[in-house]
Amino acid sequence: MKVAAGRADEYEDLLALLLMHKSSDEAESYAREVALACFGDDHLWQDMGLPDRETLSEIFRVHFNSLFLRNSFNMKWKKFLYKQFCDMLDVKTCRAPSCSVCRDYDNCFGPEIQG
After folding, report:
1. Mean local confidence (pLDDT), 15-19
2. How is 49-97 classified by DSSP, letter by letter?
3. Residue 57 and residue 68 in contact, taking contact as beta carbons nearer than 8 Å
């Protein structure tokens, strides 16, 4: 997967967000993989080639523990990362770039966006 032209800054910002919350020596490698996978069209765990969402959650628990703990409403990870990113920029309406085309759109947007 490659970062689309004109979105390199977005990749760097996502990478910086992840690295601000690193909690292991291997976190930088995972941060690069996660940031790049955010440009995919499926759920983040699928875009990373993982077997399930629980495996991705375990990566966050081990390598980005403060983000893992902050996701107390169990929001989908890609959406959660973009919400964190938008909160830092004080943007009120924010969603991951591929949410509008996702077949699970209705399952993702619920009470967690009020948290």
Report:
1. 96
2. T-S-HHHHHHHHHHHSHHHHHH-TT---HHHHHHHHHHHHHT-SS---T
3. yes
User: How far is C-alpha 9 from the geometric centre of its chain's CA atoms?
Assistant: 16
Scanning the structure block, which residue is given the tokens 């996502």?
A: 14
What is the domain partition of the chain in residue ranges? 8-114
CA–CA separation, 7 and 13 (whole Å): 10
Instruction: Report the b/e string of 20-39 with b at 16+ CB within 10 A.
Output: ebbbeeebeebbebbbbbbb
Q: What are phi and psi of 75, to 5 degrees?
A: -65, 150
For the segment 42-86, what is each residue's pLDDT rounded down to a tens digit? 999 999 999 999 999 999 999 999 999 999 999 999 989 988 887
Number of DSSP helices (H) and strands (E) in the chain, helices first: 7, 0
**For a pLDDT cut of 70, what percent of the chain falls above it?**
75
> Which tokens in the block code for residue 17?
């967000």
pTM: 0.78
